[in-house]
Every structure is written in C-alpha cells, then in structure tokens.
Amino acid sequence: MSTVVYAVGDDVSTDTIYPGRFMATVLPTETPQFCFADDQAFNGALQRRSIAPGSVIVAGQNFGCGSSREQAASTLKGHGLVVVAKGFARIFLQNSINLGLRTVICPTISASAGDDLEITPTRVRNLTTGADFATVPLPAARQAIIDAGGLIAYTRARLVAARRRSADHGPA
Amino acid sequence: MGQTVAQKILARAAGLPSVNVGDVVEPAVDLAMSHENTALVINQFLEVFAGTGLEPRVWDPSKIAVIFDHRVPAESAKTATNQKKVREFAAAQGIAKFHDVRGDQGGICHQVLAEEGYDRPGYVIVGADSHTTSHGALGALAFGVGATELASVWALGRAVNIQVPASIKVVLRGRLGSAVAPKDIILHLVGLLSAEGANFKVIEFHGEATSAMPTSGRLVLCNMSVEAGATSGIVPADAETVRYLRDEAGVADPLDLVQPDADAAYDRVIEVDVAALAPQIACPHTVDNVKAIDAVAGTKVHQIVIGSCTNGRLDDLEVAAAALRGRTIAKGVRMLVFPASWKIYREAMRRGYLADLIEAGAVVMNPGCGCCLGVHEGALGDGEVALSTTNRNFKGRMGNAASEVYLCSPAVAAASAVTGVITDPRQEG
C-alpha cells in the first residue's frame, strides 16, 4: 500500500519539478534537496524526511514536459517517490526508466492527497475510494533497460559484451 | 508502404532496408551534443565503465560536440568547477567540437551546431537538451535525451532501444503577412496540437511556406516542435538546406537530401494557411495557451527579452533594430537582448543593429541560455510580467514562480518595448 502525498494537474514541467536555478547541481546524491523547490510546503516535508519512501505523486497528462534535465527524475528518485500519471512527456519518461524512478501510466487515475493506493503490474486500486484503474505498460522498447536495473547497468553489460566479442574475434 | 523522413533516416542508421513505425531499432549516432550538463554526462559515463577494467574512452570524439551556453560566463564557483572538469575531459578525449566561453566562436548550442556545419541532412543527432529538435531544420532526425542516455551513446555509439516514431505531416500553405513570422506559425501550431499533441511523434514540415522559409525560420519551427511534445521536428532537405550549409556554414562534403516517399503514411495531416495568421502570443503558464494578439494587446510588461536558440538570429535582431532605431524603450521597461551565437553577435555589431538596440535602451548580453530558464541573469521580480521571444513560459521559468511570461515573435517584442504594453506590430510604423 502506498499513500498519495501530492496530487498535481496536467502539464507539470521539469521547471516545476526541479527549477532551472538549481541546475548547476547535477549529482543524483545532491539533487533531492531541490525537489519541487518552489512549493515550500511539499519541499519542506521532503527535506524533513516526513514523507516515506514509496509514497506516490499523482499527476495528470504530460507529467515532466519541457526541459530534458535529468535532475527532475533523480530528485524524485532520491526521495523514493513513485509517480502515477495519466501520461508522461517522452524525455522525462525515458529519464525515469534510465534512472530507475518508478513511473506508472494510468490514463484514468483519480486520487487525492491522503488516498491509499495499491499498485500492481496491471492496475492501480484506490483503496480510499474503492475505484480501480487499468495501467498501460511502459514502452516495450525500454523493458530491457528496466530489467537490467537502469541504463548505466544496461550499457555496462552491452559494452563489456562488445569488447569481449571483439577480443574473441580480433580487430575487424 | 512508403517511408517518412524519420523512417528513412532511422533505417539507414540502423543498417536496415526499411523500418516500420513501432519497430525497436538501435541507430548509429552521427552527432552527440551536450552543454554544461556534460558534467553529469561525464559522471554517468565514468559510472558505466566502473568495475569493468576498461579504459573510459568515448566511441568517436569526432562525433561529439560540447558547447558551453547555459551559464556563461560561470555564475558560481560550482559552475566554474564543472566547466573546468568538462574542459579537461574534452581535451583528454580529443573532442575537437568543443566551444568554450569566448567571443570569437561558440554561443548557444543549437545555433552553433547549425552555423558550424555540424548538422547534416540524414544525420541522427542526439542532444542532452530538449530543444535538440532544432536540428531537424537541416533535414536531420534530432531528438533530446537525458544525460545518462547521452553517456550511453558516448560509450556505445548508438542510441539503444529506440522505437520508430510515427510522423505528423504539417503543410504550411500561403505566404506570411507583414510582421508575421515563423514564430507565429509554431505558436499557432503548438496551440492547435496542445502541449502533448505530438508526444512520441515527429512533425514533418511541408508546403510552400516551408519551402520559401530560410533556414533561420525553419530552426524556429523545429526548435519549438518539442513544445507540442514532438520527439523531433523535421524539414525535408531541399535547395535552401544546401544553400545554408554551403554558403553560410561552409560545408563542402556531399549531402544526402533524404526525402519522404510520396506514399509515406502519416499519423495525421494538418494544413495551416499562414497568410491568415495574426501575431500569436503564448500566455502564462503553458506554451499551448496560445491566443491571437488581439486577446492580450495592452497587457503591461516589465521585461522584454529578445534572443535564445529560438529567436536570437540575425534576422530577428534586424527586425528588432529596425523597430527601435531612433526610438526609446518605454519607461519602466527593461529590454534584454541575447544573440544566439557570437558569430551573430559580431555580424549584428558590424551592421549597427546592436548600437540601434543599445541606444534605444536595451541591454545586450552575451550569447547564452541563462535568462530564458532563469539560471543566469535577467530574473523577474514578484508580480512582474515578461514578454519574450524564448520558447517556454512555465511557472517559474524566468527564475520566479510569482511572475508571468508571455511568448511572442521578435516583431511583437520590439513593438511592445516602445509602448510598454503588448502591441501588435502591424499597427506600428
């Protein structure tokens, strides 16, 4: 069971998730402090660690639109948050998969802050309201990256395999 | 079934005769670009090699471009230290397409790739910046990625697990009216499609207004295609593409002018009569909140911004200089101008445009992104309103969540600088 700690509407941009003025901070270990920095109440709760890992942000369409800044994914991942949205912007979704931020595409989701959700591979159940919603699988093309535990691990495995092949066969 | 430009480019880059929409392919990358966030790309790249015993070397330094533009000159010790690390990395890896902070070259990455001739039709271009869509203006398939994805490309030379996108065909009919610009076309289109209307799709531009448009305008169309969610915007290469690359960018190599097949399948076709367009304004706080100028004319503004990767080119500065020559910017209004590159800056200086703007009261800044995304100078005060030729107006974009940003063409921005309120340039003069 996961509790909704933040409910937002459509078109929440990466400027809102991670404002540009903090972009000089890049490392995933350092970005969590600026998560939704312009919302002092939510950012403050995150900073005080009063929000449990596994808590959920519920969003509308096109979550993560705008800038490709990866800090927007790493800042959410750093707090162990899960994003359940009606839809995601392309680059944000890819960044999330690449970094291992849990994202759930749920086109009809209806939930408010404080609701408890049960998230399964195919459905989201709002335990507070009793409503039940189907999810859409993440893009199949990215499954291998998810399975590998993120793009760094995936690329590392590919790189090692490629070098091993070229070592076995000698230079082309 | 015929192929779109995106399909043809991906097929070629993946070594396949053809690809279908939805296929998963691994295209070889022809150009991989990043800016200050190269500091994060390096961090992730080194992570990829960690524990492998392999020496961290990029796959092909000649296909990597690194351009400082987001915070130039460095606004903080942190940025300066990151830039220093990137500078040292570029030297160690032999990355020649590296543009440092200096006035004889460089500028905003999306302008630099075009004017240096790094962009070519038929290329697969990835960039750790969402406005990488810009490079479709020269017939490339160009899309934004995150820093970790770019690090993966640096290691493997390929973009991994890419799903072939469907394309939306946009046909631009007619001729633009006086004081109406490519910016008005793309704002109108983003309003029409919505901020997610082209999500996971490519916008392919056609029609006589596209053919007649110089590369500077095509860069505007493709730059802001991402504001409708598009993976890429693309103008199929034509005589203008060849002219630009030969005459302006000094490219002598053979060019592959990739064309869509006549029977290519499109997700949808949208026709726009550009002759009927009025100047368009994207109102706070989303880029798709677009209105014809009449709806917001008279709105008081505090800061005018002309510049950026969207509208900081020579023709944009020419429009602004012509509107402001011999005039004065309204009292209580600040006007910031930042050319898209140092090449443009120097030429605008030679032609007297910068003098015209400065004498009218504008502050001409060095080329860079800073003000557009609120990271480096030009922040807004509480309750202030900006009218800007940049590409985004999200809440807080210009450094203050308690301010508002309206987006417009250079002609609208310049006319409004004189009056201090949003002004239709067709009523000026």
Write a structural description.
The complex is a heterodimer of chains A (172) and B (429). With 172 residues, chain A is α/β, with parallel strands linked by helices. Chain A folds into two domains: 2-136, Aconitase, domain 4, CATH 3.20.19; 139-172. Chain A contains six helices and seven strands; from the N terminus they run E-H-H-E-H-E-H-E-E-E-E-H-H. Chain A has helices spanning 14-17, 40-47, 71-78, 90-99, 143-148, 151-169, and strands spanning 2-7, 56-59, 82-85, 102-105, 116-119, 123-126, 132-134. Chain A has a seven-stranded mixed beta sheet, covered by helices on one side. In chain A, helix 3 (71-78) packs across helix 4. Chain A starts with a strand and ends with a helix. Chain B is of the alpha/beta class and 429 residues long. Chain B has two domains: 5-252 and 261-272, Aconitase, domain 3 (2-Layer Sandwich), CATH 3.30.499.10; 280-427, Aconitase, domain 3, CATH 3.30.499.10. Helix content of chain B is 31%, strand content 17%. Chain B has 14 helices and 18 strands. Chain B has helices at 5-14, 38-49, 77-93, 109-115, 147-156, 182-193, 208-211, 215-223, 239-248, 308-311, 314-324, 342-350, 353-360, 410-419; strands spanning 24-25, 31-34, 64-67, 97-99, 124-127, 141-144, 162-163, 166-173, 201-206, 232-234, 268-273, 280-282, 290-292, 303-307, 334-338, 363-364, 385-388, 404-407. The longest helix of chain B is centred in the N-terminal third of the chain and has 17 residues, at 77-93. The model of chain B has no long low-confidence stretch (mean pLDDT 97). Classes of the chains: A alpha/beta (172), B alpha/beta (429).
What are the SSEs and their pairings?
The complex is a heterodimer of chains A (172) and B (429).
Chain A: E1 2-7, H1 14-17, H2 40-47, E2 56-59, H3 71-78, E3 82-85, H4 90-99, E4 102-105, E5 116-119, E6 123-126, E7 132-134, H5 143-148, H6 151-169
Parallel strand pairs in A: 1-2, 2-3, 3-4
Antiparallel strand pairs in A: 1-5, 5-6, 6-7
Chain B: H1 5-14, E1 24-25, E2 31-34, H2 38-49, E3 64-67, H3 77-93, E4 97-99, H4 109-115, E5 124-127, E6 141-144, H5 147-156, E7 162-163, E8 166-173, H6 182-193, E9 201-206, H7 208-211, H8 215-223, E10 232-234, H9 239-248, E11 268-273, E12 280-282, E13 290-292, E14 303-307, H10 308-311, H11 314-324, E15 334-338, H12 342-350, H13 353-360, E16 363-364, E17 385-388, E18 404-407, H14 410-419
Parallel strand pairs in B: 2-3, 2-5, 3-4, 5-6, 8-9, 8-11, 9-10, 14-15, 14-17, 15-16, 17-18
Antiparallel strand pairs in B: 1-7, 12-13
